[in-house]
Amino acid sequence: MEWTQRQPNAEDLRVGLISWAGTYLTFEACKNTVSAAAKGLGKKQTWELLVSNEHESQAVVRIRSLQGLYLLSEGNGSVGYGRLRSSHHGCFLLRFHRNGKWTLQCLITRCYLESDGEAVFCNSRVLSAYHMWTPRPALHVHVTLYNPLNRCYARADPTVGRVWVDTPIPCLEECGFLLHFQDGCYHLETSTHHFLSHLDRLLSQPSAQTTFHMQVRPGGLVALSDGEGGTLYPQGARLLLGLGSNPHRGEEWFLLQHCPVWVSLKSRARKLVSVFYDFEVYAAADRLTPMSLFQFECDKDSSTLQLRSVNGYYLVQRRHRTVMADGHPLESDTFFRMHWKCGRIMLQSCNGCFVSIMANGLLVANTTVPGPHEEFGIRLANRPFLVLRGRYGYVGTSSEHDLMQCNMDKPDCIHLLPCRQGIYHFQAQGGAFWSITSFGTFRPWGKFALNFCIELQGTNLLTVLAPNGFYLRADRSGTLLADSKDITKECIWEF
């Protein structure tokens, strides 16, 4: 089966809207209104665009908060939120401007959405700079760039300091980029912490040469430019990603998506689960190859898991309970229920039996009572680091606090040092290790490596069991804590 690009998730299509004053359009639940006073992008500043009609330079949209209520402009010029009362109620004409800005014009009153830096209103039909809004993608900062025209992903090549758009399957860590937002512009950082630049090569530090302007379209499409007429797009026979002024047929547009999770599975005999002879699955490989990698797709509400091989098919239970790699995404037998045990995973098929390993390494779902032979070691294959986002923001450090925080707008990278299956050491950006206090708080300058247990809870979702035996939790105060015996919503981290 040819590898097919997945449909964007709802999270990939959300945006924050920044006013001319640098403040975000905000859903104010307690005040029953909409404001633009917030300085950072959080859940109340995140909006979904529902497109009903789109052309090259404009679209008709409705703007919906994460609470399910719509942005509404009333006849008196006030702006609030609520439920729709008619076919045109809540509809705005969204225009895309060449400088990357958006304007939103109410279809009923023909007035533009604007802000004075705090209040939001809609009472002027004469376009001005005060009506300009900068869209900021609200998805997690660890992303992939997929070029629909070439049907390939961008891939950083640190050995030559270039980025190519030549990878049909995003299973490599080099396909992941960190998208940094700063002063209305963006920096793209590779998995080896180099930066895409205007010079068609990677630089070691962010600078004016690594600054890009972003055009955003509903549906997750983005284009990056230098602000002086140059646009990033694949060029030449090898599809080098570089600046140019003459893209053809929309080749400058990329689908921005959250970086997918790829894992490897290992038996207790230290053999990697791999696909052999196109579709057969054995725990028999000694070294990691692309056929030992599986995309981890999981429903966090039902704890059901699908594992997708690089051949495009899913692991599936077939006749005689044998596990094969020839399943299709909608087949019920491709869903496995996952059970965690100290960083190791057990897979239960839809017939209630657990996946086990035969003497010859063949995977078979034939065990009703799981034991050591049904436990698989699991390792993140395309993540040399973690960027964690919780209920209140990203995990990071602040000059105002000596403890790790969990409400940051700009994240820190947590470098992963695997020590055994499911267990990692957390290393801070300066090379020191995470240390834990007696209060369950963390500092990023420890001298000794500590063991952290990672358990995947959904697609791009995980929990972390800290060395003190408690789960990492995002506290409303902004301090990162390890004090939860049970997995609550505050213990779930997007990565």
Condensed summary:
With 495 residues, the protein is mainly β.
Notes on the structure:
The protein has 495 residues and is mostly beta strands. Helix content is 0%, strand content 49%. Strands 13, 14, 15, 16, 17, 18, 19 and 22 form an 8-stranded antiparallel beta sheet that branches. A 6-stranded antiparallel beta sheet has the order 9-8-5-4-1-12, with no helix packed on it. It has a 6-stranded antiparallel β-barrel with strand order 23-26-27-30-31-34. β30 and β31 form a beta hairpin.
Q: How many beta-strand runs?
A: 47
Sheet bearing the most strands, described? Answer: 8 strands, antiparallel
Count of helix runs: 0
Structural class: mainly beta
Which band does the percent of strand residues land in?
over 45%
Radius of gyration: 24 Å
Report the mean per-residue pLDDT as an integer.
94
Large-scale geometry: globular
Q: Percent of residues in helical segments?
A: under 10%
The N- and C-terminal alpha carbons lie at a distance of 29 Å
Unreliable runs? none
Secondary-structure topology with pairs:
Blueprint: E1 14-18, E2 24-28, E3 33-38, E4 47-54, E5 58-65, E6 70-73, E7 79-82, E8 91-96, E9 102-106, E10 112-115, E11 120-124, E12 134-137, E13 142-147, E14 152-157, E15 162-167, E16 177-182, E17 185-189, E18 213-217, E19 221-225, E20 231-235, E21 240-244, E22 254-258, E23 262-266, E24 272-276, E25 280-285, E26 294-299, E27 304-309, E28 314-317, E29 323-327, E30 336-341, E31 344-348, E32 354-357, E33 363-367, E34 376-380, E35 385-386, E36 389-390, E37 393-398, E38 401-408, E39 414-420, E40 423-427, E41 433-436, E42 442-446, E43 452-458, E44 461-465, E45 471-474, E46 480-484, E47 493-494
Antiparallel strand pairs: 1-4, 1-12, 2-3, 4-5, 5-8, 6-7, 8-9, 10-11, 13-14, 13-16, 13-22, 14-15, 16-17, 18-19, 19-22, 20-21, 23-26, 23-34, 24-25, 26-27, 27-30, 28-29, 30-31, 31-34, 32-33, 35-39, 36-37, 37-38, 39-40, 40-43, 41-42, 43-44, 44-47, 45-46
